[in-house]
Amino acid sequence: MTPDLDSIIISCCGAFHARHAALAAYQAGILSHYITTQPRYAQIPQDLIVRIPAIEHLYWNLIKKGIFDRIAQSYIEPHHKIFHAFSAFQECCWRRANEVGAKKVIDWGQAHPGYGRDLMKEEYDLLGIDAESYLGRNHVERTLNELRQADLVLVPSDFVASSFEERSKDGLNICQNPYGIDLDMFWQIEKGDSTFRVIFVGAIGIRKGAHYLLEAVKQLKGLALELVLVGTVRPDFQTFMNDYSDYYRHVPAVPHHELYKHYSNSSVFVFPSLLEGMAYVTLEAMACGLPCIVTPNTGSVVRDGKDGFVVPIRDVEALKEKILFFYRHKDARLEMGQNARKHIEQFTWRQYGDRLIQYYHELLQEDR
């Protein structure tokens, strides 16, 4: 079964890659509405975009998503074949999609909800921090219930898929669709100095494993290296920023289109995250010709020993060893950086969109 024209709704309370899905559906001639809280996009006709901007700055995320859900469900009509959501909390939309017989697709860019919560609870316990103060209420069962209702769950990486395998897939129809990278926005320019510079980009917090990187750099204090942390500091991390203040330089905020300059002026990208889906910053760093040190839990496409190194989570010794390797072996560092750049060229948003449209077709063919 081929989707009819004007038969797909894409809905996202937030930002990131939903617009690439909407663009792919529009270019395939099957987009009915793109429902979003974000600014309009020149490549998608204005009459296909339903923008709900008033709720974007609400403080309480659950309230925001609840309001968005109630508004979005009113746009689902009997002729729609697929409703494609980009987050959980789709209770009203799921119910309306069932009423009209539309297939339900969800892009799930995170690990299994139970896996993620348990891992972070374990981490906070290791650090002696009251987990509930930061993890909030447990919405794992509600989220899993919505995922079980979906006809298709799209995940971006092997790590996310394996986290569901570990917890049992619950009969979910899971398919992978890796993200793309905009190579017109991220490219390598000449490094401005000879300093060996380690860069971390992202929300600076416990989930990202930044405390392990700080400890590794502290233990390498005899080396002539600089650690640059680019991003906003999470509330749970301010104590670490104070305790390690002698071992990093903090760049609090950088416009996204300026990040390539910071990547390019660095020697190696290190991202020891405990929990991601497919960390987009790794794609950006690779596009800028940086070798990467990551964990399996970043969901990255870094090939161990080719584009950098993949080290276990919570492993300060491994981080030290690999940083020291790049510090001592400039030729290998440059070679792996160029490998990373070449490898990442395979990951485009066009490919993401082509796979998505194919998944739509396969989903609808199941009814034939």
Roughly what percent helix? 25-40%
Q: Structural class of the secondary elements?
A: alpha/beta
What do the pLDDT scores average to?
92
Q: In percent, how much strand structure appears in the residues?
A: 5-15%
Number of helices: 14
For this structure, what is the CATH homologous superfamily of the largest domain? Glycogen Phosphorylase B
Q: How far is the first residue's CA from the last residue's CA? A: 7 Å
Largest sheet: 7 strands, parallel
What do we call the CATH topology of the largest domain?
Answer: Rossmann fold
Low-pLDDT residue intervals, each spanning 5 or more residues: none
Count of discrete structural domains: 2
CATH architecture of the largest domain: 3-Layer(aba) Sandwich
Overall, the morphology is globular
Work out the number of β strands: 13
Q: List the secondary-structure elements in sequence, H or E.
A: EHEEHEHEHHHEHEEHEHEHEHEEHHH
CATH class of the largest domain: Alpha Beta
Radius of gyration: 21 Å
Q: What is the strand arrangement across the widest sheet?
A: 3-2-1-4-5-6-7
